[in-house]
């Protein structure tokens, strides 16, 4: 059976974006290595938050990735992008519709024909086919731009997942640090109260002067003043975490946040950037998102340029006619028509030229945003490396001070047992130990936050597949 060439036009012309510029990825000079940092093979970090060894944290992150509002918005944008692509793709294909008409009236035929001159129904039922011949790739450019928009929305959703997981982890670590600080402050207040009572008794017998009493009083006041601030920060951290998890208002107000391991019991991983710096472009979903947006803007130029050329449309109508609508399906009169129309721009007062300039300007904007996302990514990795190294050194230093203070308390209590130290010496050593604990807690939080920042900076858990890499070229 010989097919009409008209029926093959959608297949031959669909997907041909003739007027869109050839896409070339903007090039930027990449470093050969990460400065003096030592990099190693990064383990599988698809669920990087599990490396901290806290099942409660794992559950909270999973809950956030399921219920968070920002992630739901990113998912809605992805659905919109998919619907827009399906709409743009369908515009490349013919549309088929059913047409029908019915009119009541009298048909006057020649007198010699044996047809009565009576009132009759004039009916038509048929099908209509419309197709815009996409010679210049206007609809194809729009479809390809929408397809890139789907990919951009997908990468945006991945970037939102990474950001939400990181924010949840950092809020949880802050909450556990504040829990520890509250406990330490409560013990400090108790120790300082005992110490003040002891110093006051010594002052009463003339063993110490008033300055010693004043110093201990000021230390107690400072600890008591710090406790309400910590309690306030704890409450705000809990509510912020509940909102991050997407919990209901009643849960935000009434439900206490779950706790897992203490902050000094958490494992602190040391994530490393990829061995080859340029690999970062394939590990950051935000960079992939900006590139797909750039690709979409490239096809939008082709769509805008197509307005310079004529629009050619084909229309076909086929059906059956009958004077008597009651006998329509037994009609002997059949008809079909094929029509073509063309509309070519002659004078639009610069409307098309302005559209092309606008599309080019939007592409230039996306080039800048794409390059900016790369610079931001490398800055974040660089800063995360510095933060991680400094936090690790600070944690080790404060950890050493805490261990030394604990040893001092132990030795002082031993001396007290044998009569070589006083209760005042023990209490003073405990105050120093508690101050060291506070500093170490702050250092632990810094190390935990630094590791989260590194995971986020290297695009933890996100990698382009080989198929996706091909789409970006």
TrEMBL record:
For membrane topology, the record states: Lipid-anchor
The family database entries (InterPro entries) matched by this protein are listed as:
MdtP/NodT-like, OMP_efflux
Q: Is the keyword Membrane in the record? A: yes
Q: Where in the cell is it found?
A: Cell membrane
| Residues of the signal peptide | 1-19
Q: Determine the domain of life of the protein's source.
A: Bacteria
Which UniProt keyword terms apply here?
Lipoprotein, Membrane, Palmitate, Signal, Transmembrane, Transmembrane beta strand
Return the SUPFAM superfamilies for the record: Outer membrane efflux proteins (OEP) (SSF56954)
Question: Coiled coil located at which positions?
Answer: none
Q: What is its main location?
A: membrane
Pfam families noted in UniProt = OEP
Q: Which family does it belong to?
A: Belongs to the outer membrane factor (OMF) (TC 1.B.17) family.
Task: State what protein this is by name.
Answer: Efflux transporter outer membrane subunit
Q: Which organism is it from?
A: Novacetimonas pomaceti
